[in-house]
Amino acid sequence: MPKEAIVRTIGVKKSFMLGKIPLHVLKGIDIEILKGEYISIMGPSGSGKTTLFNMIGGLDKPSEGKVYIDEVDIAQLDAYELAWLRCRKIGYIFQSFNLIPVMTAIENVMLPMIFAGMTTDESRDKAKLLLETVGLGERLQHKPFELSGGQQQRVAIARALANDPAIILADEPTGNLDLKTGKEIINLLREMNKEKSVSIITATHDLKMLDVSDRVIWLRDGMIERVEDRENINIKVGEVEGEEAG
Amino acid sequence: MQQEGFGVKEIRMEEKKIEKQLSLPLSNAIQMSIRNLRIRFGRSIIITMSILLGIAFLMSVLAGNALTNSLIEKGPEEVRMLLMSNIEEVRTRQGWLASLSLLVCTVGIINAMLMSVTERSREIGTMKCLGALDKFVVELFLLESIAHGIFGSLVGSIVGAATMTVVYLFQYGSLIIRIFPAGTMLKWMLASILLGTFLAVIGAMYPAYVSARMEPAEAIRREV
Q1: Is A117 close to B40, i.e. CB distance below 8 A?
Q2: Stretch A190-194: mean pLDDT, rounded?
Q3: Is the pTM of this model over 0.90?
Q4: Long-range CB contact pairs, B41-45, < 8 A, 24+
Q5: Do A83 and B36 touch (CB under 8 A)?
Q6: CA closest to B18 among chain A residues
Q7: Domain boundaries, chain A
Q8: Least CB-CB distance to A114: which of B24, B216, B217?
Q9: Which of B16, B121, B129 is the best residue to mutate to test the A interface, defined by the most A CB atoms within 10 Å of its own CB?
Q10: Interface pTM (ipTM) of the complex?
Q11: Any chain A CB within 8 A of the CB of B127?
């Protein structure tokens, strides 16, 4: 029985207008991501990773092409359905954490649950549990500015898991973190993937991600250069662009 | 493949259900708004001051006009003679000052609200990523801007009216107390409060609506 594709893109293109000059960021992307996979989208800066990430996550619309989430064309969804998708089915993690600065850690994690219709008490209990799972049980009442980068990203992960999503999308989750913290975050994501069978899609140029990914999609200049399974990943020092390996 | 959608297909057939599945209860919205007002206190003060000063300016002009008119109507002969002698000039100045103060007030308030919402564009984009509907965002900013509007206008109109009355008291003495146009004053104060609140609300609603309607990726990368 063929495995379900949780995300599929067909001929996705995206161009931005810089004044009068069009900038073609994505030039035709066709990918298929299966349920439960851990996919990394890698490539040098400017290759279109974040733009592709935004397409897959329904955060932006492609100039051409189609994006299917669970075999539903997201361009056909209206505002309510899109919001429902973002609330219940997808969890987002960003490079700059994007926590609400006036809310404490626990309130940040509660927010998507409030939107989903949970009562304040239920959401508070669940948020507490999630924060403990990511190792921040002691810091529930702290505001983002009172937390380190790694801790903020952990809150973001807890928030992304709030409504038990099917997909977690992470855009450069370790971008603003040091080596050690980055490794912890990657391991945390891998745990979530294994234990909760959440599909994880990351856009990154952190080579530490390679170890935990099921497949890697290499992007260059807005097109897919190659797709590799973990067994076949070929790293030759000097040949891989981006940051130093390890 | 048909029966195993993850719910989106089913939901498309039950439009009404969706609205209930995404919600922002009023108590939560109020709580969030109060939190925002309290914690961004510095920002709140600046916004409130813009509204306050704009309305105070407008109100002082209106109060001055009301007091002058009252002096013309009910004042003693000498005062009336003095004011009537260049009534044309007085009237023109009244009209001009009132229009100018209205303009300054409007621009000032709208500017303050526009800036304060646009700089939170990233926060709005993030909330959209968490599943907020456009109307949740608009609702939050509506609550905040009503609070700013009412408070700023209330204090502003009192300050404006009081200041002008004091100025006139110095100039005309206790005569002012005798001819004080309480009814007119209250009328203008109410109008100013309504205007200030209205301007604060539309000054905040427009950018909030614009940011809420954007794709989240756009809202998040919007630089102010």
Answers
A1: no
A2: 88
A3: no
A4: B43/B116, B44/B148
A5: no
A6: A80
A7: 5-232
A8: B24
A9: B129
A10: 0.84
A11: yes
Closest CA to A242 of A212, A205, A211: A205
**Residue B81 neighbours by CB distance under 10 Å:** 10
Q: A70 contacts in B (CB within 8 Å)?
A: 5-6, 8
Kindly list the residues from chain A whose CB atom is less than 8 angstroms away from the CB atom of residue B35: 102-103
Q: Is B220 on the interface with A (CB under 8 A)?
A: yes
Q: Which two tokens stand for residue B29?
A: 């919205």
- Give the closest of B36, B132, B220 to A115, CB-based: B132
Q: Of A151, A37, A5, A157, whose CA–CA distance to A91 is shortest?
A: A157
CATH code of the domain occupying A5-232: 3.40.50.300
Question: A2 and chain B: CB distance < 8 Å anywhere?
Answer: no
Which tens digit of pLDDT belongs to each residue from A124-172?
999 999 999 888 888 889 999 999 988 999 999 999 999 999 999 998 8
**Tokens 């391991």 label which residue?**
A187
pLDDT digits (tens, 9 = 90+) for B115-160: 888 888 888 999 999 988 988 889 988 998 999 999 999 999 999 9
| CA–CA min distance B7, chain A (Å) | 10
Two structure tokens written together for B116: 């304060």
Query: Do A79 and B134 lie within an 8 Å CB cutoff?
Result: yes
Contacts 24+ apart (CB under 8 A), A211-217: A211/A186, A212/A38, A212/A186, A212/A187, A213/A38, A213/A39, A213/A40, A214/A37, A214/A38, A214/A39, A215/A37, A215/A38, A215/A39, A215/A40, A216/A39, A216/A40, A216/A41, A216/A42, A217/A31, A217/A39, A217/A40, A217/A41, A217/A42
Retrieve residue B59's tokens. Answer: 């109100």
Burial B164-189 (b: 16+ CB within 10 A, else e): bbeebeeebeebbeebbbeebbeebb
At B2 the pLDDT is 41
Please return the burial class of B47, using the count of CB atoms within 10 Å of its CB with bins 0-12, 13-18 and 19+. Answer: buried
One-letter amino acid of B81: M
Separation of alpha carbons B74 and B65, rounded Å: 14
pLDDT tens sequence across A55-83: 988 888 899 999 999 888 988 888 888 88
Of B220, B26, B209, the closest CA to residue B135 belongs to: B209
Q: Which amino acid is at B146?
A: I
Structure tokens at A174: 């370790």
A35 shares contact with chain B (CB less than 8 Å): no
Q: Can you give the pLDDT at residue A3? A: 67
